[in-house]
Design brief:
By secondary structure, this protein is mainly alpha-helical. It has one domain. Helix content is 84%, strand content 0%. The longest helix is centred in the middle third of the chain and has 70 residues. It is rod-shaped and about 105 Å long. The two termini are 72 Å apart.
Length: 151
């Protein structure tokens, strides 16, 4: 951001009307340009004192400290938003991965249980049929056909 662009945003910053992106660029410029920082402080003092007088408020005792507090608060706000964005960028894929993993494990467990139940049913059926089929004319082929029909 150039000094001219910065000057165009000073009043909007003081009024709290900058977007997140503009505020980020604005604060980067404040950190690197002492002349613009001094000019911003002058505008801040003038506009804030005029606003306080218009609203019949008691004037601040230390506009310089108020200005520094405002800058500090803005930096903290930007840092908190960055942490939040990073957290969201990390949290979302982790949550999706966990859901996929848990869903996959649940499905695996269900399939395994179903296969095991199916096998037990076939085994029990086969064992019961074997008792009933003690006749010599029932072959192994016939038993396999009966088992396949169960599926």
């Amino acid at each position: 951001m150039t000094c001219l662009e910065f000057q165009g945003l000073m009043i909007r910053y003081i009024n709290g009307d900058l977007s997140y992106k503009e505020k980020e660029q604005f604060m980067e410029h404040v950190a690197g340009c002492e002349n613009c920082k001094e000019e911003l402080e002058i505008y801040y003092i003038i506009l804030t004192s005029m606003k306080q007088m218009d609203e019949d408020k008691q004037l601040s005792d230390d506009f310089h400290q108020d200005f520094l507090t405002r800058l500090k608060r803005t930096r903290a706000e930007l840092a908190a938003r960055k942490r939040s964005q990073i957290g969201r960028r990390i949290a979302f894929p982790v949550m999706v991965g966990a859901i996929v993993l848990l869903t996959g494990l649940e499905l695996e467990g269900e399939e395994e249980t179903e296969i095991q139940s199916h096998f037990e049913m076939k085994f029990h059926f086969y064992r019961n049929e074997r008792h009933r089929m003690s006749q010599p004319n029932i072959t192994e082929q016939k038993i396999l056909e009966i088992l396949e029909n169960l599926e």
